[in-house]
Amino acid sequence: MITPDLESGVKMWHLVKNHDKMVSEIYLTRLLATKGTLQKFVDDLFETIFSTAHRGSALPLAIKYMFDFLDEQADKHGIHDPHVRHTWKSNCLPLRFWVNMIKNPQFVFDIHKNSITDACLSVVAQTFMDSCSTSEHRLGKDSPSNKLLYAKDIPSYKNWVERYYSDIGKMPAISDQDMNAYLAEQSRMHMNEFNTMSALSEIFSYVGKYSEEVSFALLQAHWDGRGQRMKTTLHASM
Fold it and tell me: Can you give the residue ranges of the Plexin cytoplasmic RasGAP domain (predicted)?
């Protein structure tokens, strides 16, 4: 602590023994041990995500169709920078979907995510995001531990991502007819897996709780005629 004295110009120093170094060394040792235990599972996860045919699972047609669409748009607008195309694909699938699943497994599984689990998953998610990036990450001794932890692994993960995008690009194109047929088949296969009446009941419960706010928002859409019709339907349903 420093207490300046403006009149005398004297500064009082209070020395405190620093234990941070010892604590950080213990923390780092445990962190590395935990990483070693989880390494195989993280590798398996990344390998599964960034593979077009991993363990017999074929790549969903929607991914090929979407990536081809992004390449077509890049060609249409004269965008030939491979980093831009890479970023588009990363933003629309790995970073928008998979990062969310990694950080929030409770969206898929009936589990409780405590604060410790959340912190661990955040490190994995950050590593995943860094692996999808095209920029170089310059790290130093002052870099956060979660960045340093997987610094040596990220180059390999980046190669997996680039190979994944390249492999998809080499696959045969999906026609609009095949894509429509695929979507229709998926709808048919899963049509009985969701209880639409239960979902509708939850929506009505929400609308009933915030009926004034919803009604006001609907009135704001009166300019195209839909707002009043939706408000009338809402009141009729309630």
Answer: 4-214
Q: Where in the chain are the domains? A: 26-50+59-135+144-173, 196-236
Q: Higher confidence at residue 130 or residue 142? A: 130
Which two structure tokens, joined as six digits, stand for 31?
């962190």
Count the residues in the chain.
238
Please state whether the predicted TM-score (pTM) of the whole model is above 0.90: no
CA distances for 142 relative to 35, 90, 145, 149, angstroms? 20, 28, 9, 13
Instruction: Give every CB contact of residue 104 below 8 A, 6+ residues apart in sequence.
Output: 113
For domain 26-50+59-135+144-173, which architecture applies?
Orthogonal Bundle (1.10)
Q: What is the pLDDT of residue 53?
A: 76
Q: Return d(Cα 36, Cα 158) in angstroms, integer.
A: 20
pLDDT band for position 216 (cuts 50, 70, 90): confident
Strand partners, 12: 3
- The 10 Å Cβ neighbour count of residue 161 is 21
Mean pLDDT of 99-125: 91
In angstroms, the first-to-last Cα distance of the chain is 65
